[in-house]
Every structure is written in structure tokens, then in C-alpha cells.
Write a structure and sequence with these properties.
five-stranded antiparallel sheet, alpha/beta, 15% strand, 47% helix
């Protein structure tokens, strides 16, 4: 028999398949679930609570983590109160923090006490990236406080399709076009996405079937943000005028990109040791001449792999970042470029040096393989 149409499958079936295939939920310890109060995160929290009741995993229980950016005033505070109430009804530990990405973190936490998240915007970082960095920094601190080695977030198949299209428009190369991974280290914390193959209509069907209430972010009803532009205008127009199954098409293409990306990433991992001239904490020097002996498409992956080794996680690099790195291979000594997350690259004689300026203040983490 053929594989069922994903539209006919439930959130439970799709999520459990992904959990099994990628070993997303730990058997031991505690799992932190990031909950905004919106439909996706409420569905995820309820599903994971039901999953633990049936399987006993994780044996240390589930904790709820909420980050309040305070960008919508009373509405944001109401979201925080709603999430705290949900956690209370479910008998789950609740942690919350208010952060302000542009100036740093501040305010008091509802539930488990306050924490401070990194909020200073790095050079070249957009407000959206700053907010994301602050959010994950706060969630990482919550996870560390409760001893959780990973965090679950509620990205869905629709989020995946939007991400692929957004990265295509931005110019992120083959690595970006594979979309989000079900399991990946992000800003120093291991992030799992059990709903990544679940369409949004199945999320809403699950909420209705379970009788669950949720909050609606009013900013998702406007076309101000780039993602909302894609979600509310571009994808609906493509669906109506070009391809009714555009979401499924984007997901299939992302899977193909992921296969090609995986092959090239493996080749780069094997080649990298011969390219590294020196390696110090927070600093890696690469042999520029040695890299020029490889085809240009593989040089890109050598840089990506070196940055992953330097930073402890995979970075979302734009084509512009990669082009800046490639240009250093043939440039003169002293030329430099600023890369994502404050990483600096510069040409020194026969090498290209990658360096973390604030290495001492960064959380230590094993390299992620994606």
C-alpha cells in the first residue's frame, strides 16, 4: 500500500514517526518545552504531555519555558500569564523571563524567578536576529537551570516551507534550502522539533479535538515582518495561481537539498583536518592555498565546517557571508569580514583566520552535526 497522504494523518502519527526516526525525546532527564501560548506550542505541549504519560519519556518530566519580549505591551503580558496558567493546570514546572533584545534582558520571571539573557545586538545582526538570539539565550539558561539537555520547539511543516522560501529569497545557498533540521544545536542548546512534518491544519484539528485554548499573536495578522509577508501574501498567491500544493513541493525540494548538503558536508568534514594550520580556543587558522585546490563549491563547505567546529553549532550563513569568506582566499593580508554571531574572519599571510572575539563568555557545547 502507498504511504498515506499527510493531510489524512494526525498530529500524533506524524510527530511520533519523527520522534522515532530521529530519537528526539530523551528517555532520561527533563525536557524543556518552549511555549509562546500560540496554537502550535500549545498543541506541542499537550502532545508531549500525553506522549510522556504513555511512554514514560522523559523520566524526569516536562518543564514549560516562556519568553516575553514585551513587544506587544499588555498583550504580551497576557500571553505570559496564559502560559503560566496552562502549566499550572497541567501540573508542570513553569519558567518565564522578560527580555528586550535591543538592550539586553530584564524584568522578573513569573514562576521560577528571573534570569538574564544576552541582549546586545551583534554587529550586522538584524532586530529579528537579535530577538531570536535573546530568546534562545533565555531558554538555554532555563534549560541549564533545570538540567535539561534539550528543548522542544513547535515549528511545523508550514514553518518549514516558509523557511525554505525565505532562505531562497535571502540567498542562503544549498545548506539553507534544506530548511530546519528535526534535531540541531542552536545558540548553545540542543533543539528538537517534533511537529516539523505536521501541517498547520493538523495542529488546529488536534486543538479542536482536544478542546484546547490558545492565544493569537496580533502581529501574525499583519504583513510587516518578512515571514508574515511570505505566510500571508506570497504563499497564498502561489497556491491560488501557480501550485495548489506549494507547501508539499517546497518540503520535497528541501528533502532533496538535504541529501545533497549531507553528501558535501561529509566530504568537507573528511578534508578539513588537512586544511587546518593551527587551532586554539576560539580561533582556527585555515590554509588559504590548500583550500584553493578544492572546487569552489567544496570550499564553501570547508568554511561552514570550520565555523561549526569553531562555534560549536551550525550557523545560518547567507550567500553574502560565504562570498566574503571566499574572497579572503585571494585577498591581501589584513583584509577582514564579519560573519554571523560576531565571528570575525581575516587574512593573515598564507592563512584565513576565523575567530570568536567573545570566546571566553560563550557557553561551551559539543559540535553539532545537524
Amino acid at each position: 500500500a502507498g504511504r498515506p497522504n499527510p493531510r489524512d494523518e494526525t498530529l500524533e502519527l506524524l510527530s511520533e514517526r519523527l520522534i522515532t526516526d530521529h530519537d528526539l525525546i530523551p528517555r532520561e532527564g527533563t525536557l524543556l518545552v518552549a511555549v509562546s501560548g500560540g496554537p502550535d506550542s500549545i498543541a506541542l505541549l499537550d502532545f508531549l504531555a500525553q506522549f510522556r504519560e504513555r511512554t514514560g519519556h522523559p523520566n524526569g518530566g516536562i518543564a514549560v519555558g516562556h519568553v516575553n519580549h514585551g513587544l506587544r505591551g499588555e498583550e504580551s503580558d497576557a500571553d505570559a500569564a496564559f502560559v503560566e496558567a496552562v502549566a499550572g493546570r497541567m501540573g508542570l514546572r513553569h519558567l518565564s523571563v522578560r527580555v528586550e533584545p535591543r538592550r539586553g534582558a530584564g524584568g522578573e520571571s513569573a514562576g521560577a524567578g528571573g534570569t538574564r539573557a544576552p541582549g546586545a545586538r551583534a554587529r550586522g545582526e538584524s532586530p529579528e536576529q537579535a530577538a531570536r538570539t535573546a530568546r534562545y539565550g533565555a531558554l538555554r539558561e532555563m534549560a541549564e537551570r533545570i538540567g535539561a539537555d534539550r528543548m522542544a520547539v513547535a515549528h511545523t511543516a508550514d514553518d518549514q516551507a516558509e523557511t525554505v522560501l525565505l532562505r531562497l529569497f535571502r540567498g542562503s545557498g544549498l545548506t539553507g534550502l534544506k530548511g530546519m533540521a528535526p534535531d540541531r544545536r542552536v545558540h548553545g542548546i540542543r533543539v528538537v522539533r517534533p511537529l516539523l512534518t505536521t501541517p498547520r491544519e493538523q495542529v488546529l484539528e488536534y486543538l479542536k479535538r482536544r478542546g484546547l485554548e490558545y492565544r493569537v499573536d496580533s502581529t501574525n495578522l499583519s504583513a510587516d515582518a518578512r515571514r508574515n509577508l511570505i505566510r500571508l501574501e506570497i504563499l497564498p498567491r502561489i497556491k491560488n495561481a501557480v501550485n495548489p500544493a506549494i507547501r508539499e513541493t517546497l518540503l520535497r525540494e528541501a528533502a532533496l537539498f538535504a541529501e545533497a548538503d549531507g553528501y558535501l558536508a561529509e566530504a568537507a568534514e573528511k578534508a578539513l583536518p588537512a586544511i587546518i594550520r593551527t587551532r586554539d580556543p576560539g580561533k582556527i587558522a585555515l590554509d588559504a592555498g590548500g583550500m584553493l585546490r578544492y572546487p569552489q563549491f567544496l570550499r564553501k563547505y570547508l568554511f561552514r565546517r570550520a565555523l561549526q567546529e569553531l562555534n560549536g553549532e551550525i550557523l545560518d550563513l547567507s550567500t553574502a557571508h560565504i562570498e566574503a569568506l571566499l574572497s579572503l582566499l585571494t585577498s591581501h593580508t589584513g583584509r577582514s569580514a564579519h560573519i554571523a554571531m560576531g565571528i570575525r574572519a581575516r587574512r593573515e599571510r598564507e592563512t584565513v583566520v576565523l575567530e570568536l572575539p567573545d570566546f571566553e563568555s560563550r557557553p561551551t557545547a559539543p559540535p553539532s552535526k545537524g
